[in-house]
Specification:
This protein has 121 residues and is an alpha+beta fold. Strand 2 (62-68) and strand 3 (71-81) form a beta hairpin. The protein is built from 4 helices and 4 strands; from the N terminus they run βααβββαα. Strands 1-2-3-4 form a 4-stranded antiparallel beta sheet, sandwiched between helices. The radius of gyration is 14 Å and the shape is globular. The protein has helices at residues 16-34, 51-59, 101-111, 113-118, and strands at residues 6-10, 62-68, 71-81, 84-92.
């Protein structure tokens, strides 16, 4: 696999709405375009993941933008509880699929886990 140089950047308040829309787009693409419609379960307005689910994750976790070459490639939300972390959301924009970005983001989050746990991101 190529070495992918991604950065995880804390979500800015003025990017919150776009983060939500990007997340919904990525989930919709993955569910419908990649796998085809398997059932008719959509949370709201044809969305695979609801706005409320994403907002709850952002509000109760650490939301990060995945950046590749200074361009937005996706996002993730981590939930930290003491010395344990959990991945709440991870998405890669459709135009950035199949480049190893999701895996690279996960590795970067693990590498920087102490920074996230201490709140010094």
């Amino acid at each position: 696999m190529n070495n992918i140089n991604i950065q995880l950047v804390p979500l800015k308040d003025n990017d919150r709405e776009q983060f939500i829309l990007d997340n919904q787009q990525a989930f919709r693409y993955g569910a419908v375009e990649e796998f085809g419609i398997r059932d008719e379960h959509f949370d709201e307005d044809g969305e695979i993941i609801s706005r409320q689910t994403i907002e709850n994750s952002i509000d109760n976790g650490i939301a990060l933008r995945i950046m590749l070459d200074e361009k937005i490639a996706g996002g993730m939300v981590l939930s930290i509880n003491g010395h344990r972390g959990e991945l709440e959301l991870l998405f890669v924009l459709p135009e950035a699929h199949s480049k190893g970005i999701g895996y690279a983001a996960w590795c970067e989050a693990e590498k920087n886990s102490l920074m996230f746990i201490s709140g010094k991101q």
